[in-house]
């Protein structure tokens, strides 16, 4: 499945807004995202910015006009993730507050184990039982 690219202005805005937010910037599916302790907590998807929040903060953000549950594929919502309304993206103080809350939530989660550099060998299946040859 091919996804629409984020507009350059939104990528620049994301970089401006996340410069002081803890964590590391990595690409996921070609989009810039923020990770803390291996946990995804913010990012871009097409022309939208999303944040990962705890239940109370999630409900507060969803109450803001234009906010919605992040659903990268129709019918496949990502629980805990909310799309930041476009109007908020222009409000540096407001959106940084949500990014800080998202980073705080991510830091409360257990760190994700780092993936090893090489692939793990597939588990071997036990040999199939041979049937006696009946002729």
Describe the protein's architecture and organization.
This protein is an alpha+beta fold and 135 residues long. It has one domain: Aspartate Aminotransferase, domain 1 (Alpha-Beta Complex). It is built from 4 helices and 6 strands. It has a 6-stranded antiparallel sheet with strand order 1-2-3-4-6-5. A hairpin with a 2-residue loop joins strand 3 and strand 4. The radius of gyration is 20 Å and the shape is elongated. The termini are far apart. The model has no long low-confidence stretch (mean pLDDT 88).
Q: Any chance you could write out the topology, listing elements then pairs?
A:
Elements: H1 8-18, E1 24-28, E2 31-36, E3 39-45, E4 48-52, H2 55-62, E5 68-69, E6 81-84, H3 86-89, H4 92-108
Antiparallel strand pairs: 1-2, 2-3, 3-4, 4-6, 5-6
């Amino acid at each position: 499945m091919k996804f629409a690219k984020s507009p350059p202005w939104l990528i620049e805005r994301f970089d401006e807004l996340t410069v002081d937010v803890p964590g590391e910037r990595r690409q996921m599916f070609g989009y810039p995202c923020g990770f803390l302790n291996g946990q995804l907590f913010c990012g871009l998807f097409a022309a939208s910015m999303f944040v990962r929040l705890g239940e109370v903060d999630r409900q507060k953000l969803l109450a803001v006009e234009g906010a919605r549950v992040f659903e990268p594929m129709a019918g496949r919502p990502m629980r805990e993730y909310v799309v930041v309304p476009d109007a908020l993206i222009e409000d540096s103080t407001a959106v940084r507050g949500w990014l800080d809350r998202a980073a705080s939530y991510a830091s409360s989660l257990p760190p994700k184990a780092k993936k090893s550099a090489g692939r793990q060998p597939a588990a071997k299946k036990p040999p199939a039982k041979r049937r006696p040859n009946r002729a």
